[in-house]
Amino acid sequence: MTLVSGKIVCITGTSRGIGRACALEFAKYGASSLILHYFGDQVTEGEIQSLRLELENSKIKVIVVPGDIGDPTTSTNIVEKGVAAFGRIDVLVSNAGICPFAEFLTMPHATWERTRQVNLDGSFYIVQAVANQMKNQVPQGGSIIGISSISALVGGELQCHYTPTKAGILSLMQSCAIALGKHNIRANAILPGTIETDINRDDLSDNTKREYMIKRTALKRLGAPDDIAGPVVFLASELAKYVTGSALLVDGGLFVNLQ
């Protein structure tokens, strides 16, 4: 399938979860090359190499770039290595994020600081770095997708550090749509609902909590990473060529279900 045929795609946080699913979905729909960022510790090293092998077996060109996304030099390195390998970047999926659930009143300031560094600062750094590449390449332009969250719209008792960062990503995409439109760069946000990934494994291990979240959705199931990957590919494709500054809620009907 050729929905994103020939496109060169950069994705942050690809070792597992939504980022990994996005990499596989872009390969499925015709992307030619993938620039895959991952954290770079022993665990993510093994995960990213298995993903790389799976993609290369599908004849997709892949480079992997490790680094702490909260460090601005990581974003510079991602772009430099991606462009050196493939010449340009057509799509960015800013996905890397963490959510260490914590009580607000006793939360160490270091937890707030680290969550903000990874989720919001990291998004800013990679979006700015890739946008400058998209502005300068010929032909100019591209598509930027920020992975925000339903938490940008609603609160969570153990997420007082997390929800502001996801609201910030939504706001970043809205402002970038305005700032970058003149360069033919589109910027949109995806707002996932409750998606089963490592980020919420412990939280959803409580069966009462899990069943409550399932019942809250209109579709009566939790989301899977590939439920997010499809909408991401759509926003990257020419089907969405007049879509910018949008916020696409992908939550199985969780937000609209008052009861």
From TrEMBL:
The biological processes this protein is annotated with in GO are: fatty acid biosynthetic process; rhamnose catabolic process
Which CDD domains does the entry mention? SDR_c
List GO molecular-function terms, semicolon-separated.
oxidoreductase activity, acting on the CH-OH group of donors, NAD or NADP as acceptor; quinone binding
Q: Which InterPro entries match?
A: NAD(P)-bd_dom_sf, SDR_fam
Does the keyword Oxidoreductase feature in the UniProt annotation? yes
Q: Which UniProt keywords apply?
A: NADP, Oxidoreductase, Rhamnose metabolism
Please indicate if the UniProt record lists Oxidoreductase as a keyword: yes
Pfam families in the record: adh_short_C2
The record's similarity note reads: Belongs to the short-chain dehydrogenases/reductases (SDR) family.
Q: What is this protein called?
A: Uncharacterized protein
